[in-house]
Amino acid sequence: PNPASDMFRIVGPVDSPGPATFELYNANGVLVRKSSLNESKLVHVHDLPKGVYILVIHTPAQVTHEKLLLN
Questions:
Q1: Which of 43, 55, 62, 71 keeps 20 to 30 A from 6, CA to CA?
Q2: R_g of the chain, CA atoms, integer Å
Q3: Using the 8-state DSSP alphabet, how is residue 12 labeled?
Q4: How buried is 53 (Cβ within 10 angstroms: 0-12 exposed, 13-18 middle, 19+ buried)?
């Protein structure tokens, strides 16, 4: 997992043929953040509890899942 504490940056797909979005889920599968994603997005997470989260990035071409550790 990628560690973070206050914020993390998502670098969006520059060559995406359409809009991209991201979703952040906690360990229980509850959606805690969702937003559109352009070239880059700074996501503030200082208000979320410590733990493991799943980051899902949707583009027209693919869906990517990454683990994120908030500490």
A1: 62
A2: 12
A3: -
A4: buried
pTM assigned to the model: 0.84
User: What token pair was written down for 23?
Assistant: 């979703």
Beta partners for residue 52, in sequence order? 69
CA distance 24 to 70: 12
The amino acid occupying position 13 is P
**Residue whose token pair is 């979005």:** 21
pLDDT for the residue numbered 60: 87
Integer Cα distance of 55 and 58 in angstroms: 10
How many Å apart are CA 67 and CA 9, to the nearest integer?
Answer: 14
